[in-house]
Specification:
Number of strands: 19
Radius of gyration: 40 Å
Largest sheet: 8 strands, antiparallel
Shape: elongated
Strand content: 15-25%
Helix content: 25-40%
Structural class: alpha+beta
Distance between the termini: 126 Å
Number of helices: 23
Strand order of the largest sheet: 1-2-4-5-6-7-3-8
Length: 731
């Protein structure tokens, strides 16, 4: 048996009484030889020495020696570890994967922005030695005061080859951003919420994508321009090519990965702060969208492509219930703009045209190209000089342009004609002689443009509370206010608002009508309007003013009194219901249901709803017309030929003699004359279903008889009579 016992084993035995252990005599003697006593000079028991058969195999140590050895070795290990950790943190470099020498890339360090206080943080990390990594660098924020930075070591960026980074930094290229203070997400609150920006860029210079120094410099520049704080970052060079970096922000994180051979970089930036992230997109493109350079290594058959950027912005986390008074309807990023436009990554073109705040609301205009409806290749071809079909008809391949108010879609370039012609001309051509027309809302100007096409119009009053929308639309949506097609007629002008028939009033339309028409007979009959078009907020908008527009009894009564005896009221009433929708009175469109009831209560004889599916919105859109006198309604059911003839006589032609209408005609009017099956279905789902929903026979009615609002009556009466245009006795 090996008798060279370890000190540890001797110690464990020495702490116990030998009488309590069943040990061999030889072992007992050895234990006595190494027993720790308080007296360091005590000699070994002579008897024990004599009975040891092999006297060369024993060790004599003191307790003081053991304690001193432990303290000395622990202190030495702590000192070596501290020195190593300090060196690693200072130089920020570790070599892995069999690297033969210390690999320091001298990456730039993040710094504290002037005037910004950064709390101290703790740091912990773990790196793994794995195959496929050529280097690994970690860099921490430099907290030295600005004056010491200036007096001390030069900025790492100054050491870089200026020509190498010329495509990234341009002193004359200022960040192209608007004033986005109105889009702050959290007003400085520390919420369990954030914003997430995802960016993909292709056709980027390959050398830039494989240069960790230039990439790190671009990342730091981006964070500084974004007014964020980079605490530290970590970069890995991959084998054989490519770079991955991840940075820890005081506000959250930033990360990217590159594919140099493919010319692709993907990035994500997440922040819990209130500052909006969309404004940093121009900086991202400028810093990371470095155009490829022809280095003569391969022949290019055509010009080098410009980098293409796809991006997506999403709200993350939870706001309602955590931010006092948070109202999603007042946050554009929490409405159509954020959910269906900014949140999508697949738009081939998604360019912000303007983002601004007027006195009353936020206005956003975006240029979009959905790959499901438009081809980006055809669009690029339309921009080329040549005789291709695309080049000869560029308007057919251009991106769409969309207007948002407080984040809600209001109008689109592609759907401009279908929406605005459908809301104006059905009622206008039904009225026998509309001279005075009032438009409530419609600040983009397109509704006014369509009204002015009727030669009978003598006065077109547009009552819009927000003049800022008119100004921004003129600047960024000129097509909506373009009347050049009819400007050769007397009194007309190229800009619709310059037409002599226009009376633009920038005031609250509700107050205007209540003040002038709330009491019957309060206004002179010459002040009444033949047609009133309400192109304002949607009935399902969850804001206080939208509720008043559709439910205020005083306002609805003033609309009735503001119409002439044969007047027509037109109201856009939002999204068309589906077959599985609940009744309006219990669903999202309660306001629409209330307005229909109040219109009947104040005296309207007939109410009809129709829909248009090409308005460029997220769903088919519906419009409601209310006839003050049922006799006017009979003209609603004219056949296609009669409508086309009336349009020919009424609508002002273009300079070439063609119709100035692009979408509306007799056949289109035919599709509006009866409500859709969906409106009939939800009408019969109301809690107090009308008798006609029971399936009882319905007698034919004269077109001049008031029927109130009954999609069932309209649809079934037309089936009973088997008449092409619905109801009977139209002559």
């Amino acid at each position: 048996m090996c008798r060279q016992w370890s000190l540890r084993r001797f110690s464990s035995f020495a702490t116990q009484s030998t009488e309590q252990l069943e040990l061999s005599k030889e072992t007992e003697l050895i234990l006595k030889a190494v027993r720790f006593d308080d007296d360091d000079d005590e000699s070994l028991d002579e008897k024990a020495r004599e009975n040891i058969k092999h006297p060369g195999h024993y060790a004599e140590v003191t307790l003081r020696f053991v304690i001193a050895s432990l303290i000395l070795t622990s202190g030495l290990a702590f000192l070596v570890g501290s020195i190593a950790r300090g060196l690693l943190i200072r130089h920020g470099v570790q070599a892995y994967d069999g690297a033969s020498e210390y690999n320091s890339h001298q990456l730039p360090a993040p710094v504290v922005l002037p005037g910004k206080e950064v709390p101290f943080t703790t740091y912990a990390s773990k790196s793994f030695n794995v195959a496929g990594v050529s280097f690994s660098d970690t860099v921490h924020i430099d907290r030295r005061p600005e004056e010491k930075l200036d007096q001390g070591q030069c900025s790492q960026m100054d050491k870089f080859d200026e020509e190498k980074n010329a495509s990234i930094y341009d002193a004359q290229d200022e960040p192209r951003v608007n004033d986005y203070s109105h889009n702050d997400d959290s007003d400085g609150l520390h919420l369990p919420a954030g914003q997430h920006l995802l960016v993909d860029i292709k056709d980027v210079d390959s050398e830039f994508l494989n240069d960790e120094t230039r990439l790190a410099t671009a990342m730091i520049e981006l964070i500084n321009e974004s007014k964020l704080t980079l605490l530290s970052y970590h970069c890995h060079g991959l084998v054989p090519i490519g770079v991955s970096c991840a940075g820890v922000l005081l506000e959250s994180h930033v990360a990217f990965h590159t594919w140099p051979e493919e010319g692709v970089i993907t990035m994500d930036l997440f922040t819990c702060g209130g500052n909006p992230l969309v404004p940093v997109l121009p900086s991202i493109y400028r810093l990371f969208g470095v155009p490829p350079v022809d280095r003569g290594e391969e022949a290019y058959d055509e010009d080098l492509p410009e980098p293409t950027m796809l991006w997506s912005h999403k709200l993350r986390g939870f706001r309602e219930g955590f931010a006092p008074g948070y109202d999603a309807s007042r946050n554009p990023l929490d409405q159509d703009l954020g959910r269906y436009v900014l949140g999508r990554l697949d738009h081939d073109v998604k360019n912000e045209v303007v983002s601004s705040k007027t006195e009353f609301q936020t206005v956003d205009v975006y240029e979009l190209m959905d790959p499901k409806t438009r081809s980006v290749a055809s669009y690029r071809k339309s921009l080329e000089d040549g005789d291709s079909y695309e080049a000869r008809h560029p308007e057919l391949f251009a991106p769409d342009r969309v207007l948002f108010l407080d984040g809600v879609i209001q109008s689109t370039l592609v759907g401009d004609a279908p929406y605005h012609e459908s809301i104006v001309h059905p009622a206008m051509i039904t009225h026998p002689n509309p001279k005075r027309v009032a438009i409530i809302g419609g600040g983009e100007g397109a509704t006014l443009r369509e009204v002015l096409k009727h030669r009978t119009v003598e006065e077109a009053s547009m009552i819009e509370i927000d003049e800022g929308v008119v100004d921004l639309s003129r600047q960024h949506l000129p097509e909506w206010q373009d009347c050049t097609g009819i400007s050769h007629h007397e009194g007309s002008a190229d800009w619709c608002f310059d037409d002599t028939r226009v009376n633009a009033q920038f005031k609250d339309a509700m107050t205007y009508f209540i003040d002038n028409f709330e009491r019957e007979g309060a206004a002179n009959e010459h002040d009444q309007y033949d047609v009133i078009i309400m192109d304002a907020l949607d009935p399902n908008d969850e804001i206080e003013f939208a509720v008043y527009l559709y439910t205020s009894e005083a306002y609805i009564l003033s609309l009735y009194n503001g119409l002439s005896n044969d007047g027509i009221l037109v109201v856009q009433v939002g999204e068309v219901p589906g077959e599985d929708s609940p009744a309006d009175e219990t669903g999202r469109f309660t306001n629409r249901s209330i307005m229909q009831e109040k219109l009947l209560e104040v005296g309207f004889d007939s109410i009809h709803v129709y829909e248009e599916g090409h308005s460029g919105f997220l769903a088919p859109w519906s419009t409601m017309v209310a006839f003050k006198d049922a006799h006017t309604r009979r003209r609603w059911y004219r056949n296609e030929a009669e409508i086309d003839l009336a349009l020919k006589r009424r609508i002002l032609p273009t300079r070439t003699g063609d119709s100035s209408l692009r979408y509306f005609d007799g056949a289109t009017m035919r599709s509006y004359q009866l409500p859709s099956r969906a409106f009939q279905t939800i009408y019969c789902r109301s809690s107090d279903a009308p008798f006609e929903c029971s399936g009882a026979d319905i007698s034919p009615v004269n077109a001049t008889v008031s029927i109130g609002y009954s999609p069932v009556y309209e649809r079934r009466s037309s089936l009973v009579n088997n008449r092409r245009f619905g109801l009977t006795s139209l002559s």
